[in-house]
Structure formats: structure tokens, C-alpha cells
Amino acid sequence: MAEYGPLESEDGTQHFVIEAMRPAKDHFVVRFTGVDDRDAAEKLTNLKLYVSRDRLPPIEEQETYYHADLVGLAAMTPDRAPLGTVTAIHNFGAGDIVEITPEGEGTALMLPFTDATVPEIDIDAGRMVVVPPEVTE
């Protein structure tokens, strides 16, 4: 992670250089340059940190994407009927979920991000083909 350069706060006003990092059970323990004591570290609790997209390495594996490249894509059915816009990719522990917000009013769709549900992604065309589940009454 350190090779990506300084991490930034969401608003870009704070920058953090990783001085040391080690894996823990299900997370990393990091020491930042200039954060010298426990009180200073506690003030950063729950601060979201970001790396600028342009500093990330290119993806060389087919059908592998950065979430940031998927958010904003137009979601449509296989017959090209619009479903909405991809607004997030979530992972709550059981696999990725794609969130699609419909145009206008309506409840966001939360669908499994699998080959069966999302058979086609075309970043250059700005679209994702989605097979919505059958609705039964």
C-alpha cells in the first residue's frame, strides 16, 4: 500500500504517509509519519482514507475491475431496457453486491455481482448488462 504514495482524507485536506504496516487478524496496523502518540491516533478513528485512482496500477486480469470504474455505469437489461445507474459495490461478507439506483423514483436494487446476474460489463461504453431476478407475486 505504501507504494501508492500518501493516503488522503475523503475531502483531500489531510495526507498520511505510511511509516510502518503489519497485518493483524482481519485488518492492518499502520503507523503514519507525524502521528506520534495514542491520542493523535485515536483522533483518526473511522477516518476514511483514499488513494487517487491515477496512482493505482493498471488491472491486467480480464473481468477484474476497480469499484470506482463500475460506479456510474448505466445498468440495463439484456434487451437494453434501462434499469438505472450503478451507485455502489458492497461486500457484506458473502460476496460482492451491485447497487443500482433507478432513474427518478424507486427503491435501489441490490443484486449479487455474479456472472449470472451481471453477464456483461463494457467500461468504454459506460454500461453494465444486468439480468434482474424474476419477480413473483
What is shown here, in short?
With 137 residues, this protein is mostly beta strands. The chain has two helices and eleven strands.
Record keyword descriptors for this entry.
single chain, 137 residues, mainly beta, SH3 type barrels, 3-stranded antiparallel sheet, 2 helices, 11 strands
Q: How would you characterize the overall build of this protein?
A:
The chain is mainly β. It has two helices and eleven strands; from the N terminus they run E-E-E-E-H-E-H-E-E-E-E-E-E. The protein has a six-stranded mixed β-sheet with strand order 9-8-7-6-11-10, with no helix packed on it. A three-stranded antiparallel β-sheet has the order 2-1-5, with no helix packed on it. It has a two-stranded antiparallel sheet with strand order 3-4. It starts with 6 loop residues before the first strand and ends in an 8-residue tail after the last strand. The relative contact order is 0.13.
Q: What is the CATH top level name of the largest domain?
A: Mainly Beta
Shape: elongated
* CATH homologous superfamily caption of the largest domain: PRC-barrel domain
Total count of helical runs of at least 4 residues: 2
Mean pLDDT: 89
Order of helices and strands: EEEEHEHEEEEEE
Q: What fold name goes in the CATH topology slot of the largest domain? A: SH3 type barrels
Number of strands: 11
> What order do the strands of the largest sheet run in, or round the barrel if closed?
9-8-7-6-11-10
How many domains? 2
Main β-sheet: number of strands, strand sense, barrel status? 6 strands, mixed
* CATH architecture annotation name of the largest domain: Roll
Residue share in helix: under 10%
**Percent in strands:** 25-35%
User: Helix/strand/pairing class, anyone?
Assistant: mainly beta
Ends apart, CA distance between termini? 48 Å
